[in-house]
Design a protein that fits this description.
CATH architecture: 3-Layer(aba) Sandwich
Helix content: 40-55%
Keywords: Hydrolase
GO molecular function: hydrolase activity
Number of strands: 5
Order of helices and strands: HEHEHEHEHEH
Structural class: alpha/beta
CATH superfamily: SGNH hydrolase
Number of domains: 1
Number of helices: 6
Largest sheet: 5 strands, parallel
Radius of gyration: 22 Å
Strand content: 5-15%
Pfam families: Lipase_GDSL_2 (PF13472)
Strand order of the largest sheet: 2-1-3-4-5
Protein name: SGNH/GDSL hydrolase family protein
Shape: globular
InterPro entries: Ester_Hydrolysis_Enzymes (IPR051532), SGNH_hydro (IPR013830), SGNH_hydro_sf (IPR036514)
Distance between the termini: 79 Å
Length: about 240
């Protein structure tokens, strides 16, 4: 038989448990809502950047992440990709990468988006990314890269690796080395950018406007140096 004091303690404990459960439920719902909102904004930005075409000449398709989209810039047209020569089209999605689960926004990996992006029939495909693969297993990055190369068979391709963004700099060497090895296996030119000292926004992940200019100009120069003629066509 419960004494009045024991009953009071049990009631108090029950209230605490209920309050904790409510707080956890609120936290989970809040995080889910925030994630949904971020993904929705990423999709809006991706569509907007797709509509922006810069330059003239041969058609260049950039498949990439938030750096290609221009996340953090007042004008998405100022992303680094606009520094490339040619008629540049961007198929970017913030948070995406080579691996299938780099993003929490569904099927938006480079492989998942490649087939649709290729509809504009590019003369050259530049794949930029790797920073969002920082916490992904090596096997997942490997699989995503190989699936993407299958998608891009028959096209001229260049892969641009990740720069050393301060917030993820510890993970960059592993991803950079893996991507360079895979690119060499497929005979695809690989542009290293991990040596660059770039200006970043306060999040220590995304570039400032000057950072985009410097990154874009360096990538353009290094592509030209690696492929003085025309990049080889990826075999089927």
């Amino acid at each position: 038989m419960l004494h009045r004091g024991n009953l009071r303690r049990l009631t108090g404990a029950s209230v605490v448990v209920l309050l904790l459960a409510a707080l956890i439920a609120f936290y989970v719902a809040d995080r889910a809502g925030a994630g949904a909102t971020r993904c929705q904004q990423h999709r809006i930005d991706a569509r907007e950047r797709t509509r922006i075409v810069t330059g003239s000449g041969e058609r260049v398709l950039v498949i990439g992440d938030s750096w290609s989209v221009g996340l953090g810039q007042d004008d998405l047209a100022e992303s680094w990709a606009e520094r490339l020569p040619g008629e540049v089209h961007v198929a970017g999605f913030s948070g995406s990468g080579f691996s299938a689960r780099a993003s929490l926004c569904g099927r938006v990996s480079f492989h998942d988006r490649a087939a649709t992006a290729l509809a504009m029939r590019p003369s050259l495909v530049v794949v930029e990314g790797g920073l969002n693969d920082y916490d992904q297993p090596t096997a997942a990055i490997d699989r995503g890269f190989r699936d993407l190369m299958t998608d891009l068979a028959g096209h001229r391709v260049v892969v641009v690796g990740p720069a050393g963004a301060p917030s993820r700099s510890r993970a960059v060497p592993r991803v950079d080395t893996l991507l360079a090895r895979l690119a060499a296996e497929y005979g695809v030119p690989y542009v290293r950018t991990s040596d660059l000292d770039l200006p970043y926004l306060e999040d220590r992940l995304h570039l400032t406007t000057d950072g985009h200019r410097e990154f874009g100009d360096t990538v353009a120069d290094r592509i030209a140096a690696l492929t003085p003629a025309r990049p080889a066509v990826l075999s089927r």
